[in-house]
Design goal:
binds S-adenosylmethionine; two-stranded antiparallel ribbon; Rossmann fold
Length: 195
C-alpha cells in the first residue's frame, strides 16, 4: 500500500496534502528552524521565540483549541508559528536535515502499559529525529513520568545518540505543564540528545 501523504492545516492555505513544503511562506526570513512538538498553549514557544529572535520557532499541535491558544500567545512575533497537525506527519513532510532543535516537553506519557503504543516516541519517531535534525542538531525531552523518561532514553540511545541528563531546569521558558508539575512538587526529568 502506498504511504499516505500527510495532510496539514497551514495558516492562510487551508488543508494541504503532501508532498509539500509546509514551511513555504510561513516565516519571513531564513533562520535555524526549531520545533516544539505538542506545543499546547504556546507558553514555551512564545517565550522561546521572544528570547531567540534569530531562530524560527514552529509549534506543532494536534488539538485545534490549543492551536488557537498558541497562535494568540505567539501574537505578532515574526519568528513564531503554529501548525495544526500531528507531529509525525509534520516531521515527515520536512526536508532532510532541516531542523536545528526539536523539543518534546511533557508529551502525553500514556502511563498504562497497554497504552504505551500511543506514545509519540516510537522507533519511527526516533528515525524521523535522525533524518530531520541537521548535523549537530539537538533533541530535548522533559517529562514528569520516570517511565516515559526511561522508555525515551532507551529508544534514543539505542540509535547511538549521546545523552546528557539535566537535573535542574534548563535556561528556557517553563511550559504550562512544567509550571503545573513543579507547583505540585512533582519530579521532572530532562535530557538532551545529539549525535
Ligand atoms: C501534556 S500536553 C503538554 C503541552 C506543552 N508541551 C506543555 O508542556 O505545556 C501534550 C500536548 O501534546 C499534544 N499532542 C499529543 N500528541 C501529539 C501529536 N502526535 N502531534 C501533535 N501534538 C500532540 C496534545 O494535544 C497536548 O496539547
Amino acid at each position: 500500500m502506498p504511504a499516505r501523504a500527510p495532510v496539514l492545516a497551514v495558516p492562510g492555505r487551508g488543508l494541504v496534502a503532501g508532498p509539500v513544503d509546509p514551511l513555504a511562506g510561513l516565516f519571513r526570513s531564513v533562520a535555524p528552524l526549531v520545533l516544539d512538538l505538542g506545543c499546547g498553549n504556546g507558553l514555551f514557544l512564545a517565550g522561546l521565540a521572544a528570547g531567540k529572535p534569530g531562530w524560527n520557532c514552529l509549534g506543532i499541535e494536534k488539538k485545534e483549541y490549543r492551536v488557537r491558544q498558541a497562535r494568540r500567545r505567539a501574537g505578532d512575533l515574526a519568528n513564531a508559528r503554529v501548525l495544526h497537525g500531528g507531529a509525525l506527519a509534520v516531521l515527515s513532510s520536512l526536508p532532510l536535515r532541516s531542523v536545528s532543535r526539536i523539543y518534546l516537553l511533557f508529551g502525553d506519557p500514556w502511563p498504562k502499559r497497554r497504552h504505551a503504543v500511543r506514545r509519540l516516541v516510537q522507533e519511527e519517531f526516533v528515525t524521523l529525529l535522525h533524518s530531520r535534525l541537521e548535523a549537530g542538531g539537538i533533541f530535548f525531552f522533559a517529562t514528569d513520568s520516570e517511565e516515559y523518561l526511561a522508555w525515551t532514553r532507551e529508544k534514543v540511545s539505542a540509535s547511538g545518540w549521546r545523552i546528557k541528563e539535566w537535573a535542574v531546569p534548563m535556561t528556557w521558558p517553563a511550559t504550562e505543564f512544567e509550571q503545573r508539575f513543579a507547583s505540585a512538587g512533582l519530579n521532572i526529568w530532562r535530557f538532551q540528545a545529539s549525535r
